Batch of 2 targets.
Target 1
Amino acid sequence: MPVTKKKPVKKSNTIKLKFDTSWSYDPAPESKSAATIKPQYDLFINGEWQKPLSNKYFATINPANEEKLSEVAEANTADVDKAVKAARNAYEKYWKKMPARERAKYVFRIARMVQEKARELAIIETLDGGKPIRESRDFDVPTAANHFFYYAGWADKLEYAFPNRKAEALGVAGQIIPWNFPLLMAAWKIAPAISTGNTVVLKTAETTPLTALKLAEIIEEADLPPGVVNIITGAGETGAAIVNHPDINKIAFTGSTDVGKIIQRAVAGTHKKVTLELGGKAANIIFEDAPIDQAVEGVINGIYFNQGHVCCAGSRLYVQESVAKQVIRKLKDRIESLIVGDPLDKNTDIGAINSRSQLETIQKYLKIGKQEGAEMYESSCPLPKKGFWCRPTLFTNVAQSNRIAQEEIFGPVLSILTFRTDDEVIEKANNSPYGLSAGVWTDKGSKIFNMTRRMRAGVIWANTFNKFDPSSPFGGYKESGFGREGGLHGLLPYLSLKV
Ligand code: ADP
């Protein structure tokens, strides 16, 4: 793999770690030939591939080498209207009338087909988004299939989920997803919506449309009645057209807090139900009694794997003072051993940053961190010449008020702070506009319960991090949004309950 020359260290507070090049793994690339990507994709509306009324297409590239993978349609307001009409028609004509056990059969079929095509989906996810194949193969795709299985199981059991209530579908759901988990987010949104009897118009993120379009092919092959799931592509304007369409009953959005605020303003005073899953700045807390090696590995998993492109990433680390030196030393050693490079290689830990603009955002924060007086350590690993890359980086000497401790960076960048007492760390952890997730590392069960009770975060992991299961609800407090996805709670946003 081509490597760039290391740039000279300019800032005195930047310290490059030394990369041990004396040994390395042999390349172990997954084969691209197991995936078929068409040169061009139209919009999946009413069970058919339809040319966009806009007549416009845009390219989707591989962020690891900047090569074009395909081009996808850019849906305009008229295209969105067509998709919503198809979804409404499908809802009124057959989906809401179909017995729930029959609906479930379709969703089970989709789940099984996602499993059958797992390898192809994982390769496409990695090519289009830049994440390591290990992540897409072992996490994204199986978890997406599990969501379809899980919600298919609920379809004909809603009377048990909500006893003494009549659960009714809402109608047409408009769903907008981000680029960090393209297939999984599509599954999170589509599975509960259609299992509960709603129909869907889903828009992918502009940089990662391909696995959702593959899912559309699966849905077509599964013979889902036309219009029950419509999958369209486009950027922010297409998303806004969905949000503002008068015949949509529910908006489900995952993305940035800024866009979440725009959406909330847009639907205020309308009949539309909304769920928003927004940004995060998770506190990961290591107490002195924690199993330190496991905690260090949990921190690495929480922020570096997946390039930090995770809204619940453990990007703020709080370490108890007595073990801070030890933890920081181990973290520095560990980031130096992380493998950054070809996302299709099975040994890669950190793949490509999803887009040039995201890389620029991360680089902006690296500068801000140094200007704020924090000390920056980055791995000395070589980076490929083409594509978008960021070395795993950590900041020490970070103050609670620093922007790198308060704002979402969405990259492989960790801000490390220290604390002395439980009360202090709870106050610091809660001192954030966000409240999506958190982690606690300690060997005391009582401490775990004390922390989880007092911390304002939707998901709190104890002695682990970034673990997901379709049966667990996920969602945030404060500017991380509202509503829950996953589990029994994830059924509610798609239902109205009547006595
Ligand atoms: P990120 O910063 O993670 O890219 P965004 O919030 O910008 O997050 O994007 C998440 C999703 O929201 C994408 O599918 C994007 O196209 C869509 N989007 C962007 N702007 C708007 C908007 N004004 N209304 C609706 N959707 C939007």
Target 2
Amino acid sequence: MKAMVAVKRVIDYNVKIRVRSDGSGVETAGVKMSMNPFDEIALEEAVRLKEAGTVSEVIAVSMGASACQETLRTALAVGADRAILVETDADLQPLAVSRMLSVLAKREEVSLLFLGKQAIDDDANQTGQMAAGFLGWPQGTFLSSLKVDGTHLVVEREVDGGLESLRLAIPAVLTADLRLNEPRYASLPNIMKAKKKPLETVTPADLGVDPAPRLKVLSLAEPPARAGGIRVPDVATLVAKLHSEAKVI
Ligand code: AMP
């Protein structure tokens, strides 16, 4: 069976995000970009299944500007066999991404569609769930473990109260949470080899999807700067302030 992994190019998690002066979005010019960390985990899981002989091919997919090719080359260096770039300058939102992923998953006849549980730029946590809806496939979200059991998957999900175990029929949509695995780094020889692996470019129109955004961001602002701390002389004053000023007790 084949696996597809959605990898998004996002602002690197170490970068301090700055809002554009006109409030139209966050500054991306000259900013370090990387693969979304949860997608690294999703990719690692798919590559491990390939190494175990459970999966025959891993296809990485990224959607956005042509620079997403860098993210795809990283995915190929980590172990994906081939890559598909859906190239567009449109402001992509989860609805369009999930539609396009579902079209590609059907076109490529994959059995497992892996995503990160959320992208660290929009924090939407919607794409996997909506892709499962479009495909009509079961979904295992927030995964902390995954085992293949014949025609089914046994997964553990991270939920508020602990862990939930599910048995899902294949094909399925799976989204990776932090504890699923520890992703590897791409080695230099594999980075070189990845340059020769196939990377196909398609457009949203080729997939029959209109990528136009349905939601409009009205404004974006930095959170207010934190006020400095104060020292209090004793516990009684601390308790009084927590009550009267912070209103936490
Ligand atoms: P979100 O629903 O936006 O939080 O994103 C959840 C997951 O969907 C991400 O971790 C990626 O696996 C996938 N995804 C979202 N946007 C894209 C994109 N533009 N290209 C590839 N994958 C994406």
